């Protein structure tokens, strides 16, 4: 029996509702399949914690987290009490950066039982690999002068190391999927970084002769996510392009409440972190109606990462079965509570 040590940070708002739901489901999958179990350590780091201690997590927070095999996080943010830049940078972004979680992966697929806003959703099933450490989201630049003479300079930073590892990760994933990688580029408008990105993409592709490739400008690619998402398998994208594309991915599925994500550490020095795309949803927090699927699908990504793809596949199939049967939360057109959806998923897993 392998027992995984997982650090659990529910965070704020609906994070505190969907995280317990997802760990309950994880335990049920492990029980049904056997051979593994989970040992959770819960950390109350959140905006509540900030109000009591003046910081989002203790000084040795990262030292504590470093010892776990994975971090399972809900959502962070309570803008009525703590400014977002304080809460997110004090916890979530700190973990991503310090733990060198250089890749962010976000799948999107046609989800059975869910009304996609697309007229003909077909059967799309794609995965965006987003560079998560540099690119357009750099802190290099500055502002000078005030008023009419003011100048703001924001530098995009593309290192060979960062670019290559993100692109290579996309190719590795594509080899295990349908064998196709699309590069999100904009080398017709951005004249230094994007031709460099294209060059690295071209170079990396040489080591994967069986993977088919395409290079598409980000503006056209965004449109194709809406008009023909079924033509994509894996998409390799820079930090900004990946960020924008994945919001379109969540939108064409039908709800932000189901979209999962993983922040991957590649050098093995630190744990990876699994968190849904959605935030703390203060507008519905405390009502017991949050959709737990985003967090549960995120748990599936953690299972995949830990090497249990067959369990992950089973879990996702059951979640889709439950959605198709009509047991769903309000955001996706149902009337069930978080607990009802969770228990239906667990019952079907055990069936
Ligand atoms: P949000 O994702 O929390 O909510 C946007 C809308 O989607 C709301 O109407 C909400 O009710 C709905 N929604 C989201 N998840 C849902 C779910 N599981 N079930 C049903 N409905 C759901 O984004 P918003 O309102 O912009 O941000 C709220 C707070 O969350 C802010 O403090 C923000 O900074 C933070 N945030 C944190 C993230 C994280 O921890 N990774 C990501 C995005 C936002
Ligand atoms: Mg975003």
UniProtKB/TrEMBL annotation:
Species classification: Bacteria, Bacillati, Bacillota, Bacilli, Bacillales
The protein's name in its UniProt record: D-malate dehydrogenase (decarboxylating)
Coiled-coil intervals, chain numbering: none
Cofactor names: Mn(2+); Mg(2+)
SUPFAM superfamilies hit by this protein: Isocitrate/Isopropylmalate dehydrogenase-like
Pfam families hit by this protein: Iso_dh
Keyword entries, A-Z: Manganese, Metal-binding, NAD, Oxidoreductase
Gene3D superfamilies reported in the protein's UniProt record: Isopropylmalate Dehydrogenase
Catalytic reactions on record: (R)-malate + NAD(+) = pyruvate + CO2 + NADH
